[in-house]
Every structure is written in structure tokens, then in C-alpha cells.
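Encode chain A's predicted structure.
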Amino acid sequence: MIAIIIAGGSGTRLWPLSTEGRPKQFLSIDATGRSLLQKTYDRIKDVVTQVYIVTSAPIADETRRQMPEIVDNIVVEPSRRGVANALYLGIRRLLRDGAKPGE
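Encoded structure for chain A:
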């Protein structure tokens, strides 16, 4: 099984904790020190064969910094266009990488 994590965002959902430069997926909200993005990866990494993250260009560097273990599977949207388009980009990338339906 392959997972696609959609991790774009504009930082408005958990304002004032999250901001445009540091949206919610980069926040650590418990004592672990792990961000919400890292904790999402931690929860799924043992049950999938591959993980892709789709993120937006303004926060791509921070995504790469937080997720060095899968830096090659980070897909960067040139501009934010919503969840459906982000999912499309992720699927297009995993198919380009040779994933087969049903994996």
C-alpha cells in the first residue's frame, strides 16, 4: 500500500498558533516534540510500502527539513489549487515512479 499525505495549507486553521510561514503540520502540540506531519508519518510508516507528501512551494524547504527520510518522495505544487489537485499530483508522481494500481 502507498500513502499520500497532503501537507499544504495556509496556516489559518489553528491561528494564532499556525501562520502562513508555519502552518499546522509543522506544529508540535504534545510533549513528543514531533510535528503533526512527523507524527502522521510515524503512524503510517509501518503499514505502507511507500509514502509521498504533497506540499506547496512556500513550505517545501521546511517539509524537506522535517522529513529527511522521504525527501525523494516530496512532491511540490507550483501553486496551491486545493486538495483534489494535490492528490492528482501525488498520484501522477507515484505512477511515474512505477507504482502499480492496488499496491
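The helical segments are 36-44, 60-66, 83-96.
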